[in-house]
């Protein structure tokens, strides 16, 4: 049957070959607009708090979002199960009704599990910040959403598995599928606000957040939309995800009795990453569109570099070629020299291998500038843990805030820098009153996928 069909197709192609070819030279070339894209709104839900201001203030004040993991926070009926997890620390979003807490009553419900709810909350903050609440059909159709994630709602899958074991499949919620799909975060945001532009969701593990911003910026550049609500979201602090990352030997296990010290990027004693959760969402906008409506402009998104390691399922390649390519491509696209960059937010997750490889790649790209004392480098994961699919977006926002405030955020717990880093370019505390003109942020994911973003101070109009 298959062979028969192939025969027919081949035959058609042969006979129709002349008709299939066409002289396109008589037509104008496809139009590829090159528009500038700026950031006009920010929204955050992080382990440091729900909101941009509270997350940033606590980050600069050397606070941490990392805590001991309890059986209760994992919703384990049998507390003994907790002891089966070698890693018992996590960076949880503070939930409650105090200022800076995530309001569960307002955002969680039968159709919105945590990863969707975090994205909704961060998107709302970003849109309010950007003062973008269009009512016109044309504006709504020119506004899109691109929110990615790493895993989706594993907890729902876990609970559904209990129903299988108990032979109670009829009790499965009709919202099971729309609760677990990663693109439902972007779907919900578009439904809530009526945005009919592109609706997209990147899934590139821990690079999802960075790829989302990069892809969304391209959509604006290319003319698919004038405004994009872009970001990443994650809520995978559940027993199954914890067990999975433990089995992959990715998580910190030596600091269960001293949780606040467990996430320590670039430090000699680092022993794995700490699971985090949350969301970061920005409003990206075509430059002239932002000027015309008098929007506040935080930064220009200027460079987006991507690469693949083509090396290993979970480990980075030793010499850091993938990271090198992502960074140099982002700089090239931005039209910048390495010496133009004043701050790097490293991907560094606090794993023994990953941090070394990234530091090496940074040295290869930035050469002497990396040791000049003029390039500030930090990993904010010391305070937030690793937010997986949200990390790239959250860290892009920290970069934009670094640019905006002239402050480079600290690397928490970096007490004894690994000698390979020379101790030159890792601030232990926030450096204030810096002149920050350009920033770069890295994100790398399982599968060997890499993304780097470059932001610069707003264009002078
Ligand atoms: C659930 O909450 C989301 C916000 O996270 C909201 O957009 C949605 O309308 C709510 N759905 C229901 C059924 O209440």
From TrEMBL:
Family membership noted in the UniProt record: Belongs to the thiolase-like superfamily. Beta-ketoacyl-ACP synthases family.
Q: Which residues form the active site?
A: 206
Question: Do the record's keywords include ATP-binding?
Answer: no
Alphabetical list of Pfam families matching this protein: ketoacyl-synt, Ketoacyl-synt_C
An MF annotation (GO) of this entry: 3-oxoacyl-[acyl-carrier-protein] synthase activity
Under which name does UniProt file this protein?
Answer: 3-oxoacyl-[acyl-carrier-protein] synthase
Q: Which NCBIfam families match?
A: fabF, PRK07314.1
Ketosynthase family 3 (KS3) domain sequence ranges: 34-457
């Amino acid at each position: 049957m298959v062979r028969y069909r192939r025969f027919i197709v081949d035959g058609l192609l042969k006979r129709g070959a002349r008709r299939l070819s066409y002289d396109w030279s008589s037509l104008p070339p496809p139009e590829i607009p090159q528009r500038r894209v700026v950031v006009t709104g920010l929204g955050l839900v992080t382990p440091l708090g729900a909101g941009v201001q509270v997350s940033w203030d606590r980050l600069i004040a050397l606070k941490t979002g990392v805590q001991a993991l309890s059986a209760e926070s994992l919703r384990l009926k049998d507390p003994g199960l907790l002891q089966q997890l070698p890693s018992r620390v996590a960076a949880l979003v503070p939930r409650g009704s105090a200022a800076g807490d995530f309001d569960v009553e307002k955002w969680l419900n039968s159709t919105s599990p945590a990863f969707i709810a975090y994205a909704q909350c961060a998107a709302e903050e970003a849109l309010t910040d950007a003062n973008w609440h269009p009512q016109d059909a044309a504006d709504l159709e020119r506004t899109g959403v691109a929110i990615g994630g790493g895993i989706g709602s594993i907890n729902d899958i876990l609970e559904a598995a209990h129903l299988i074991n108990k032979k109670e499949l009829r009790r499965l919620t009709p919202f099971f599928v729309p609760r677990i799909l990663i693109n439902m975060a972007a779907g919900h945001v578009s439904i809530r606000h009526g945005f009919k532009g592109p609706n997209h969701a990147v899934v590139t593990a821990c690079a999802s957040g960075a790829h989302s911003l990069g892809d969304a910026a391209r959509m604006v550049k290319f003319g698919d939309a004038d405004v994009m609500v872009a970001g990443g979201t994650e809520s995978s602090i559940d027993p199954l995800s914890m067990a999975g990352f433990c089995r992959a030997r990715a998580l910190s296990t030596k600091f269960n009795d001293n949780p606040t010290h467990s996430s320590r990027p670039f430090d000699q004693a680092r022993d794995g990453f700490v699971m985090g959760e949350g969301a970061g969402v920005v409003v990206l906008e075509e430059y002239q569109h932002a000027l015309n409506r008098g929007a506040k402009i935080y930064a220009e998104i200027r460079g987006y570099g991507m690469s693949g390691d083509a090396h290993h399922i979970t480990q980075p390649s030793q010499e850091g070629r993938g990271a090198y390519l992502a960074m140099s491509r982002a700089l090239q696209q931005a039209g910048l020299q390495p010496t133009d960059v004043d701050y790097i937010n490293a991907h560094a997750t606090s794993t023994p291998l990953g941090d070394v490889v990234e530091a090496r790649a940074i040295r290869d790209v930035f050469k002497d500038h990396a040791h000049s004392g003029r390039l500030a480098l930090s990993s904010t994961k010391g305070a937030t843990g690793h937010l997986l699919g949200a990390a790239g977006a959250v860290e892009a926002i920290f970069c934009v805030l670094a640019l905006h405030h002239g402050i480079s955020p600290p690397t928490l717990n970096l007490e004894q820098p690994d000698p390979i880093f020379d101790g030159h370019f890792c601030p232990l505390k926030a450096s204030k009153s810096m002149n920050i003109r350009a920033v770069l942020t890295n994100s790398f994911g399982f599968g060997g996928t890499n993304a780097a973003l470059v932001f610069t101070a707003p264009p002078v109009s």
